[in-house]
């Protein structure tokens, strides 16, 4: 399958390079809470409505990073009995959430994403964090110029297909667990994550188009398309 293409997207605006270390916790918490509320709303839509595929674009993690997150999660599980943990194989960094997608939109975005030219992106996890009000446990990802550029190129590529980029600043993270009850002891969990693991940096060589399936047991993801990096 042909994978070469031309660069898509505008020149990176330095004003968009957000220093995650300076972002207020409330902004990220609000971002996670709104995303969860939107997912619940879509899941409750009428059974007579056929939304098509529920898609998002994301970066898969290196095996070493998955192992490190698995070990960190195991250490925290005793303090977080009320959380629903994401399966290690489903962990990812979202670049753009597309949501309900028609077959026509799918046919539009795939060649545009395949034509996107970008070099491999260095990924560095910063720390595990929790937002008890939103009920989300995450691993924060360092926001680098290379990651911002890739995210902007993805949203630029999908926009002609009917997907509007979010107006909020991009906050890359990995969702590790979500609150499924009121039994989670967030205070004890916060105390444990004061001892942060040292994560290994890795170079992302591809990004993926995922389809998400909602159920009472949580979300399940399947890979629909793979797009190689290294052509920029």
How would you describe what is shown here?
- The chain is an alpha+beta fold and 232 residues long.
- A hairpin with a 6-residue loop joins β9 (206-213) and β10 (220-228).
- The two termini are 18 Å apart.
- It has a four-stranded antiparallel β-sheet, covered by helices on one side. The chain has a four-stranded antiparallel β-sheet with strand order 2-7-6-5, sandwiched between helices.
- The radius of gyration is 18 Å and the shape is globular.
- It has one domain (23-39, 53-228): Cyclic Phosphodiesterase, Chain: A (Alpha-Beta Complex).
- It is built from five helices and ten strands.
- Residues 1-24 and 38-50 have low confidence and may be disordered.
Short description:
With 232 residues, the chain is of the alpha+beta class. Helix content is 28%, strand content 28%.
């Amino acid at each position: 399958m042909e994978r070469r293409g031309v660069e898509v997207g505008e020149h990176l605006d330095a004003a968009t390079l957000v220093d995650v270390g300076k972002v207020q916790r409330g902004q990220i918490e609000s971002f996670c809470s709104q995303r969860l509320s939107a997912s619940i709303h879509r899941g409750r839509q009428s059974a007579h409505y056929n939304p098509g595929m529920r898609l998002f674009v994301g970066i898969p993690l290196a095996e070493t990073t998955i192992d490190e997150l698995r070990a960190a999660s195991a250490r925290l599980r005793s303090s977080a009995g009320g959380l629903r943990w994401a399966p290690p194989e489903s962990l990812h960094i979202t670049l753009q959430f597309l949501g309900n997608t028609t077959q026509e939109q799918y046919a539009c975005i795939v060649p545009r994403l395949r034509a996107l030219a970008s070099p491999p992106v260095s990924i560095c996890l910063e720390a595990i964090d929790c937002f008890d009000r939103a009920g989300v446990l995450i691993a924060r990802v360092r926001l680098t110029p290379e990651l911002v550029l890739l995210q902007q190129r993805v949203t630029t590529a999908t926009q002609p297909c009917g997907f509007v980029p979010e107006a909020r600043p991009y906050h890359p993270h990995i969702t590790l667990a979500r609150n499924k009850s009121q039994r989670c002891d967030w205070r004890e969990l916060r105390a444990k994550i004061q001892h942060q693991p040292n994560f290994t940096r890795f170079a992302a060589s591809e990004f993926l188009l995922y389809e998400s399936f909602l159920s009472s047991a949580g979300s399940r993801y399947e890979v629909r398309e793979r797009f190689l990096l290294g052509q920029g």
